[in-house]
Protein 1
Amino acid sequence: MSAKVWLAAMVAGTMLVVVAGARHETASPPPTPRVPPEAPWLTREAAAEIIGPGGALGPLFTGVVLGGSAPLAAVRARIAEFARTHDVAIDLEIVDDEVAAVRFEVMYGGCCGYEGADTLAARIGRPKIGGGCTGDGPSWLDDWAATVEEGVHFRASVRVNRVLVRWEPVATFDELLERADRLLGADRGAVSRKARDRWIEVEPGRHYRLEVPYPLRGPRPYRDELGMDAVVEKGRIAEVSFSIRDPDAEPTKVPAVLRSHWGRPRVRADEPTWTWHRPDRIVQAGFDLDDETTTVTLRVR
C-alpha cells in the first residue's frame, strides 16, 4: 500500500470515529416512563351517600327496599351513574322481581390503600376482639355481621385494601330452619353456584360455610355467627350445623319453634339434647343453659 493510500485510509477512519462520537454525544436521552396517576379514593361525602349511620343503607339507595319490588329504572340508573363516577361496584340482586340484596365493593389504590379501607370499615362499625387480661392488644375483625335496623341485616369484610358490604332482609328463625332442611342432601356444586360469594370454603373439598342473614351466635365468638357450617361427602352436603343465642328472647322461644318445625322430639333425661328421627335424616338440638346457646345439627342417615 502506498503512503498516499495509507494516509487517506487513516483520515477516513478518523472522520468516522469523530462523526460517531458526535452522534453519540448529541443523542437524546431515553424518554422517562409515564406513571399513570393514582385513582382518587372514595371521598367521605360519597361514602356517606352509600353507607348510613351504623352501617345502614345510605341516601343513595332511596327508592330501594330490601325484600320489596324491584326499583324503578330511574333509580337504578341513578345508582349506576354514581357507581361509575366514584369507581365503585354496586349490584342490586333482583330475584323474582324483588330486591334480594344490595352489594357494594370498593378498592383503594396506591401504596397505602389499606388506610382507606380501614377508615371505611370503621364507619361500618368494624368490631374488635381480644385484649383484656391476655396481655395482647385487641385486634380488628376482617369479617363481621349485624342487624342494623328493623328487617335489615348486613355482612362486611375487609381484605387489605378492599371493602365489601352486603345488605339483605333479615331471615326469621323459621326461615333459618327451612334453609337448613333444604341444604341437607343438596348437591355442593348447585349450592355453590346459587350462593355465589355466600359459599365460603373452610376446609378444601369438605367443610364449607353458607352465609345467612340471621343474627347467629356461636360458641366461638364471631367465628360461627356468619352462617351455617356444611360438611360435604361425595359431592353432597351430609351435615349442616349452626348455633344460635338470643338472650333477649323468652327462654321458651327457641324450643317452641323447634317443636313447631320438626314436631315432638325424643328427649333424654340425662342430657339437654332433643332428637328427631326422619327417614332421610337425624336432627339434634343441644341446649347450653349457661351460655343460652342452642346448637342444631342435621345429618343424613
Protein 2
Amino acid sequence: MATHLRLERQVLSYHLDDIERITRKMFQQSDSGTLASTLDDIGKLLAQHGISFEGRAVPVSLVPTVVPAAEVQAIERAGAVVRQVLNRLLVRFVDEHRRRTFDGPLHRFFTPYYRWWDVIAAEQRTLEHIQLMRYDAVRDDHGRWSFMETNTCCPGGTIHCARIRDAWRKTGLGRHLCHDELVSEFAIDSDSGFVRFLAQLATQLDAAEPNIAILNYRGTYTNELESLRRCHAQLRDKAVIAAGELLLGDIRDVVCQDGRAYLGGKPIALIYNKLDPLQIDPGAAEVAGWVAASASPGTEFLNSLGAMYLAETKRVLALLSDPEWSHQVDLTEDEQRVIKEVIPFTRLVEDFIRGGTPALSLPARERQAFVLKADALTRGAGVVIGDQVGSETWLEALEHTRTNHGVAQLKCHLPSRTGFRTDLAGTVTRVAEFYGVDVFYFAAQFAGMVSRSHTSQVFNVGNGGRESPVLIVGSAHA
C-alpha cells in the first residue's frame, strides 16, 4: 500500500545532509548548562508576550524540526491539491442538500452529522469553504511524506508557534545552529502572519467596518485568542492593517439583525470560530444569533460550517482514499495520484465489518499495521495504535471506534530523534521523542510549517507534547 509522497531520488540524495548537518551542530552544543539556560531564555522571552498554554507554561522542544527546502514545493502542491478536492466535496454536499437529495451519496457518507446538515447548507458565502487549514503530517526517515489528518475547523499554532520559533532563534543555541544556514521564512513564521490574513479577508468583505470576531463556546479552546487580539490591536495602531477591531466573545453573545452579525453592538465582517462544533446544538435558542449569522449576507465565517463539521472529520480521509467513495468527487488522474501518494490508506470501520465478523476484518487480522481514530475528537483522544495494545483490547477498541463513526488508518512510520527534558532542579536528560510536521494554508496559499514532538506516538501539545521550532533550510532547488 503506497501511502507516501516520495520525492525524486536525486533530491533525497541529498538534502538529508541539511538535517544531519544541523543535528551534528545541535549535539555539539548539548551540554546540560547550555540546554538549561536555553530553556530559561525561551521561557523569559515567551513570558514577555504573556504566552501560556491554557494557563500553564508552553512546553517547548529544544531540538528543531529540520525540513529540506528542496522538498517544500512538492509538499506545497500536494496540500493544495487535497484542499481543492475538499472544497469541491463541500460544494457538492451543499448542492446535494439544496436539491433535497437527502439520500444522496455524500449525505449517506456524512450521516453521523445529520443534525447539522440544514445549517451547513443554509450558510451564505463568497469565500471558499476552507480559508484556514493545517495538515497533521509526518516526514519519515527516508523523506516520504504522509498527511495523517486534515484540520479545517480551527487549527491551533497560528501565532504562538511563531513566537516560540523566534524565541528559540534568539537564544545562543538557536543563533549557533542557524549560523551560515539559508533558512526560509513563510507566513506562519511571523507572529502577525495569521492576523494580517484575517484583516485582509475582513477588509475584502467590508472595507468600511472590517471588524473580526473570534468566537468561543463555553470556554473551550481558548489558547492563543488573547495573543491574536493584542497583535491585531498593535498592527491597527501602527496603521499596518486597516482600521477595525478584533473582538473576543462567545457564540451565545452574537446578535444577527439587518443581514449581519453584531457582537457587543459592533458589526462583524468576519467570524473565526474557535470551538468544538460537536458541543453545539444547532436548534438551541442560545445560539440562534450565531446560526442566523452564518446565513446572513453581511457576515462570513472564516471556515464554513461544512469545513467545521465535515472536512474536519477523520472519515473525510476515507472518502478521499477509498475508491468506493472517492468517485463521488470525480477525481482527476492528477488528484488520484497525489491522494494515493500523501493520504494513508484509510477506511470507515463500519465498512470493514459491515455484514461480517469484526474479528475477521482486515484491521483485526493486521492489528499491528493499523491505527484506530474516533471520527471527530481532537488532541489525540480516541486514537488507539494497534502495535501498542493486545488483541482483546484492540477488538474492543475496534467496536468502540465503529460506534463513534471512526476510521482505521494504515499506520505511518513516525520519525524519532533524541530530545531533552529538564526537571524542576534543572537537570537535563536525553529522551527518545517522535515528531510531526504540520503544514498550514491561508486560503490557497502555502503558509509554512510548524511541529510538535512527544515521547508518545500520539504527539499533541494538549496531551503532553511539545512545540518544536521548524527550520526549512537549504536551497529550494534540487
Protein 3
Amino acid sequence: MKKLLLSILGPIVAVSAIVVGIIWWDRGAPPGFRPPTVDVALSDLSFDHRGVRVEGTAHYNIRLTQGDYLIYPLMARGDTTGKNILAMVRTRRMPDRLIGLEDVTVEGFARPPGQIINRSVTEPLLARGYSFDEDFVLILEYDD
C-alpha cells in the first residue's frame, strides 16, 4: 500500500515542486505573492527587474484593450509629446474616457513584451507616429 501511494503521489509532488520553482524563479516570488518592489527610473527599466514602481505619463489617447485589460504607452513624467516607447503597461484600471494623458505611478511585474504586445497593439501605435525602443519593457500592473 505504501509503495502504491508513493508511486502515485511521488511524481505529483515532484512535478508540482518543479512548476512552483520555475514560476518562483521567473517572477521573483512564489505564486500568489509579489516580488520585492524597487523604484526604477523609466530610462533604467530592464528585464532584469522583477517587481517595479515606475513614475511616468500615461498616454491614453489610443485606447488599446485586450479583454478586460487596457494597454498604454508610459513615457517619462511630463513627456506629453514623446513618441519613442520605453515601456507599455497592461492594467485592469480603466481611466475616465475624457482623460488622454495622466501622470501615474505604476507598480507591477517588468516583463518582456512577448505575445501580449502583438500586431493588434503595435499597428495602431505605429500609425499614430509612435516607435518602440529596441529594449522596451512591458509592465503587468498588479491586479490587487
Protein 4
Amino acid sequence: MATSKTYKVISHRRGRETVSTGTLAELTQSFSYTLDIGHSYQHEKGNKKINTKPKTIVSLVLNLNNAKTNAAANGCPDTYYSQG
C-alpha cells in the first residue's frame, strides 16, 4: 500500500508561527484561497504569476509567498511561509 508523503508548511505572521501538516494535495486545498487571491492580482504591473496547482512542496511555498506579495497593498506582506 503506497502512502503519500506528509509535509509541513510554517506560516510566519507578526512573530507567531502556525504549522500546517498534510500531503501536497491537502496543503494545496488548505491554502487554495490564498493562491486564488494572489492569482487574481497577477495581471497587475510588477506582480508574479501564481500556479494554483503546484507539483512540489517547494513550488507550493514559493507560490504562497508570491501570492501574499501580489495581494499586499504596498507589496510588502505581513505573512510569509517556509517549509518545515
